[in-house]
Amino acid sequence: MNALNNASIKDEYCTGLASFAFPKAKSSRTGVSVEYIPFQDKQWYVFRIKYGKAQTVADAIIEDGTYVYLAQVWKDVVNKETGKKQRKLFPFMNLLFAYVTDQEAEKYVKESPQSRYTTYYYNHFVTYYDGKNPPLTVSSRDLEPLVRLTALQDEHVMEVDIKACKFVSDDIVRVTFGPFKGIRGRVARIARQNRVVVNIKGLSSGLTTAYIPPCYLEKVDSED
Fold it and tell me: Which CATH number applies to 155-224?
């Protein structure tokens, strides 16, 4: 397992426990799992991982007792031997989400054995006084829709360039029925279908649901 399971989320945006539960952190090598407990000094850092090393880094960090989420999406690849297309799961943007303190994040990027494969994903929407961008961090609330969507491992879920999306409107909607029930985002016309796009601010790519009939959508307040 590469994700957090059955763990209640609580952060600065929630007065109580969130309705969604992250999968329990568990190493695919050792089977060791730990309980997810929210901490005031920890937040979800976004790490960019070298191609092909995401699972290795995730397992190593999990073995430290740290919670991570490795979002994966299906993509078509061509088999070099047969020339035929195959569908395989790949890490979303080669990213890894880790629930760590600032000091722990710095360790994984600069001092640990995983630092050979790990860098920060920087927030290009924010610039410090020295002209540099800070590492991107996200709240549990903002990460939740991405976790919900990728945990389904539905082959119709697609990675999309946010700038290239043709959004129907700026309205936030929620899916009310079917396997994507509860997913919130904006409706965009993709692959000739209306789909709900989930995006974390600061990331250049987002994820879409499969086609959602209009009768399965309800408009919600952005703060709902």
Answer: 2.30.30
Residue 122 confidence (pLDDT): 93
pLDDT one-digit tens code per residue, 35-52:
456 677 899 999 999 999
3-state DSSP helix/strand/coil % of the chain, to nearest 5? 20, 35, 45
The token pair at 212 is 């959602």
Distance CA 118, CA 147 (A): 21
pTM value is: 0.81
Domain residues of the chain, as ranges? Answer: 1-153, 155-224
**Stretches in the chain below the pLDDT threshold 70:** 1-38, 222-224
Closest alpha carbon to 43 in 142, 133, 180, 111: 142
User: What stretches of the chain show up as alpha helix (H) in DSSP?
Assistant: 54-62, 102-106, 140-151
At 200, list the tokens: 């974390």
Q: How far apart are CA 80 and CA 8, in angstroms?
A: 43
The DSSP code sequence of 5-37 is -SEE---TT-SS--SSEEPPEE-TTT--EE---
The secondary element (H helix, E strand) that includes residue 186 is: strand 184-190
As a whole number of angstroms, the distance between CA 19 and CA 33 comes to 21
| CATH architecture entry for 1-153 | 2-Layer Sandwich (3.30)
Bridge partners (DSSP) of residue 94 are: none
**Cβ-contact 33, 23 below 8 angstroms:** no
The Cα 218–Cα 194 span in angstroms is 14
**pLDDT number for residue 16:** 30
What is the reported pLDDT for 11? 41
